[in-house]
Write a structure and sequence with these properties.
Oligomer: single chain
Radius of gyration: 23 Å
Helix content: over 70%
Structural class: mainly alpha
Length: about 120
């Protein structure tokens, strides 16, 4: 009787562990897919707006995706100082962006195109 109960509890524990790990893996897969789509949309829209080459666009997609995954890891980390880690990640990302893009492209990439701002000025009351 005791052995049967022990096997039953062990089996339930294993099934619960498998269910939890499957759900977190699916959640991570969904989050990764959303991040990929977001990065692709951002870089594609900036490529149309700024007009940089496809090779640069691929580098930017890789850089942005790596940055977002690293930020996500930093936010989840329990013992880490996430604010300091994210600041370092942002600085590293900005440095790599400046290496990939020209100065004008970098400014437009980070702040949007100046011509677009001229077309839609902000009115302050």
């Amino acid at each position: 009787m005791y052995g049967l109960m022990k096997k039953f509890i062990l089996t339930l524990g294993i099934l619960f562990a498998v269910a939890v790990s499957t759900s977190t893996a699916q959640e991570k897969g969904i989050i990764a897919e959303v991040l990929r789509n977001s990065v692709e949309q951002k870089v594609d829209s900036m490529q149309k707006l700024i007009g940089f080459e496809d090779e640069i666009a691929l580098k930017l997609k890789e850089l942005e995706l790596k940055y977002l995954f690293d930020v996500q890891k930093a936010e989840i980390c329990f013992l880490c100082s996430s604010k300091r880690r994210i600041t370092k990640l942002k600085e590293a990302r900005d440095k790599q962006l400046q290496e990939i893009l020209t100065r004008k492209e970098y400014i437009e990439y980070e702040g949007g195109a100046f011509e677009e701002v001229k077309k839609h000025p902000v009115r302050v009351r």
